[in-house]
Every structure is written in C-alpha cells, then in structure tokens.
Write a structure and sequence with these properties.
Elements: H1 11-27, H2 31-38, H3 42-49, H4 57-66, H5 72-83, H6 99-110, E1 113-118, H7 129-135, H8 140-150, E2 161-166, H9 167-171, H10 177-191, E3 196-201, E4 215-219, E5 227-232, E6 235-239, H11 242-258, H12 277-289
Parallel strand pairs: 1-2, 2-3
Antiparallel strand pairs: 1-4, 4-5, 5-6
Helix pairs in contact: 1-3, 2-3, 4-5, 10-12
C-alpha cells in the first residue's frame, strides 16, 4: 500500500473507497480486523476507504474474500476501478475546469450506459458548439471540453444514451433563434444514431414526477457500481448509494413513460401535429424559423 496520500481524490477513487467501506460494514467487520487480515494498520484502512490511499490487487482480492464477495462481474469492476490511471483526453483540461467536470468525463468514458433528464437546458452531450458557447459564457476552453465530451456518443463502443428533455428547454432562446434552430436540428440528427434515444416531456403532462430537477444516471460495469449525478448551484454531487440510485432509476422510468414517444432513428419527417417527440421538435422549429 502506498505510503503517501493522494494530492487530489477523483470521484472514481472516492467511490472505490466507498464501496470497500460498504462491503466491510455489510460483513460486520471492523477496520482493525480487516487491517490485521491484510497486514496493514487500522488507520490505513480508513484512509483507503476515504480514497486517500490505493490498494493493490492482491490485498483487494483478500478484502473481497473476507467480505465474501462472490459476484465475478462486481469484483472485476472494483479491480478495474483500482487499477485505472484515471487518465484520458480530459487530462489536458485539468487546469481549465473543475475537478467534478473531469470526474464526469472519466465516468462517461467508462459508462456502460447513460440516462439523463433535463428540465431547462439541452443535455450537455447533445449541445451544438454555438449553444454551448452561450451556456459556458463564451469560455473557449470550457466549450472545447464539452465538445470533446460529446464524442463519447459517436466513438467506438459508444454507450446507449437515453435523454428525456422537458419541452421548456426547447423554448429557451439561448443565443437567439438561429442558434436554437440549429440546436433543434442537431437533436434530430443525434436521434438517428443507433445508441441515442431522445424523448420530450410536454408542457401539457398532467402528472407530476419530480420533473423539476435534472439528473444523470451513469451505469457502471455492474449495477452496484451505478451512480447518479446531481447538479446544484455550488457544483455537482455524485451519489452511489444503492437506495438513491434506485430512486432515480424509478424516476427516470416514470419520466420516460410520461414523455412523448421517442424521436425515430429512421423517420426523417413527421407531421407537425403528430403526437410524438419528432413532431413536437419540428413544430417548435417551425415557430423558431418565423422569428
């Protein structure tokens, strides 16, 4: 086990430690007991569970054996988290953006699927560069960072991506009619990707489903490694609690059920009056063109 503490803890490292603590607690084993079994001091166990120290594969496997973890897929996911360098295209932006944004890019790159709900904005991975410029205050580095993030949907092994967008987001004229018209066109183009599903939650939905708060569900290599990302005024929070993830799983399923049928990946046109997401997008786009 490394002697020095990490100078900065990534979300992956924090989550890894959280999973180890959760397993130890569930097994009813104290930090002192598992430390003795692994041949390390008790305080080092606390630091490992806090993400400040790493754990080599030999000791990780011993930890999992002690906690009676037999799920091979879950074990493999934890080993991958432990061995990852955390480096990727996002590393070059480490001086230009927040730690939480770097964590998000790493999480998206390793996700097996992504589910998102947005109430007032177009989801980040679906934004055009011009739209992003407005949202990011014309910060060139942040716009480039968001553009690089979006490539996860078109690269090799692109994860399935499902987005539910409230109709309100389509009416917000950020950047003006021309920017928004191109953004609506871009949503239609992105919906043609085989891994992308987009649905619109209409204004006239009569059922309340806690649809005022945006969120992103990040699917891991095992359901026990899923997480939900919540944005707020002062930053972002990654939550890996199984109970919380399950709550948002159900919320997303309900929102999908309340939203209009998805934009078709094969249909290029729809009647503006047609009651589906493509019809609504085309109807709003027609109104924007008249501005």
């Amino acid at each position: 086990m490394p002697m020095g503490f990490r100078s900065g803890i990534s979300e992956r490292q924090r989550r890894f430690g959280e999973e180890l603590r959760r397993l130890r607690d569930a097994a009813g084993i104290s930090a002192l007991e598992i430390g003795e079994a692994l041949g390390v001091k008790g305080p080092n166990i606390s630091h490992t569970e806090a993400g400040r120290l790493g754990l080599n594969v030999e000791r990780l496997n011993a930890w999992l054996d002690i906690c009676k973890v037999t799920d091979a897929q879950y074990r493999a996911g934890l080993i991958a988290m432990s061995e990852s360098s955390g480096k990727g295209w996002w590393t070059e932006f480490k001086h230009d953006t927040k730690r939480s944004a770097l964590d998000l890019a790493e999480a998206e790159a390793n996700a097996t699927a992504l589910d998102t709900y947005e109430s007032l904005l177009i989801p980040g991975l679906l934004q055009t560069r011009a739209y992003s410029e407005v949202i990011q205050g014309y910060n060139e580095k942040m716009v480039e960072f968001r553009h690089e993030r979006s490539k996860v949907l078109t690269g090799n092994n692109a994860p399935p991506y499902r987005a539910v967008i409230h109709e309100a987001a389509l009416h917000m004229m950020y950047g003006g009619p021309a920017v928004m018209r191109d953004q609506l066109n871009h949503l239609i183009e992105m919906s043609r990707l085989p891994n992308v599903t987009i649905q619109i939650l209409p204004f006239d939905c009569t059922t309340y489903a806690s649809n005022d708060s945006s969120f992103l569900l990040i699917r891991g290599t095992h359901t026990r490694l899923d997480a939900v990302l919540l944005d707020h005024l002062h930053g972002s929070d990654f939550i890996g609690s199984p109970e919380v993830v399950t709550t948002f799983d159900r919320k997303f399923d309900r929102l999908r059920g309340l939203a209009l049928p998805p934009l078709s990946a094969t249909t290029s046109e729809s009647s503006p009056a047609q009651r589906d997401s493509l019809g609504m997008l085309q109807h709003i786009r027609f109104k924007v063109q008249g501005r």
